[in-house]
Design brief:
Elements lengths: L21 H14 L7 H19 L6
Helix pairs in contact: 1-2
Length: 67
Amino acid sequence: MSRVVTPSSVQPSNLPPLVIPHEKIAMRAYEKWVKRGRPQGTEMQDWLEAENELKAEMSRTKPPAKY
């Protein structure tokens, strides 16, 4: 059995993992929740989506490391 990994979730192993501030994730998750009409029981889904969106955004805009 093989595991398929999508390119957006793959990070080169020589880079440190992206750390997103808790406050940024919370704000994005809250915005997603409000846009959905404030449904009950979507906290985890909103949080994970917000975190993944922010990581993707930061990986696209992060300047290359200088050695």
